Amino acid sequence: MTKPVPYCCQWATPELAAQLIAGDARLADDLNWTRSGALTQAEYCEWANHVCGMACLNMVLRDRDGVAPPVLELARRSLPYGAYQRQGDNIKGLIYAPFVRYVGEQFGLQAQVHVDLSAEQLPLLLASRRYFIASVHPSIRQPHQTPPHKGGHLVLVTAADGTRLRFHNPSGDSLATRENVTMPLNTFARFFAGRGIALA
């Protein structure tokens, strides 16, 4: 497997993740919100639960370039492309096709949307692409559970072979579920929605 990719949490304080997920802390309690690139605390509170895809992009850019804009700045820059849409008070996204245009034009990344994939196809895909942003159920941080459905969250798959893969989870609630998580393909398949974005 290839060298580890730098990690980025979708929240400004990774150590707060478990409390945020459990409902024992609020985004307004995150004193490090400025690290996210948010212009205001209100912007951070509105967006931080929706930017798993931008955290994945941050990791890709840091791996390639050594530096990257912070997560909320990446999200703001994606808005003119339509990578997110507002529906009343709700934020819809990440929307794949506009994201592909965004990363191509802004960062020179070659990206392609893939659908109807099986987990077993990911090693072959990653043989030709460096990264895969995969749609999984957020409960993937508890791999022994059975998710109610597949998809709804994005993780960055960075390596795969015939039996297992490695990924970063922007919303992991511990070091073990956050960075360089190694998981058997058949376990990953229970959470994987069969779609995502490959990046070179």
How would you describe what is shown here?
The chain is of the alpha+beta class and 200 residues long. It has one domain: Cathepsin B, Chain A, CATH 3.90.70. 32% of the residues lie in helices and 20% in strands. It contains eight helices and eight strands; from the N terminus they run H-H-H-H-E-E-H-E-H-E-E-E-H-E-H-E. The chain has helices at 17-22, 41-47, 52-65, 71-78, 96-107, 122-128, 175-178, 185-189, and strands spanning 85-87, 90-92, 111-114, 131-136, 153-160, 164-168, 181-184, 192-199. A six-stranded antiparallel β-sheet has the order 3-8-4-5-6-7. Strand 5 (153-160) and strand 6 form a beta hairpin. The longest helix has 14 residues, at 52-65. It is globular, with a radius of gyration of 16 Å. The model has no long low-confidence stretch (mean pLDDT 95). It comes from Serratia odorifera DSM 4582. This is Peptidase C39-like domain-containing protein.
Helices and strands, with pairings:
Blueprint: H1 17-22, H2 41-47, H3 52-65, H4 71-78, E1 85-87, E2 90-92, H5 96-107, E3 111-114, H6 122-128, E4 131-136, E5 153-160, E6 164-168, H7 175-178, E7 181-184, H8 185-189, E8 192-199
Antiparallel strand pairs: 1-2, 3-8, 4-5, 4-8, 5-6, 6-7
Helix pairs in contact: 3-4
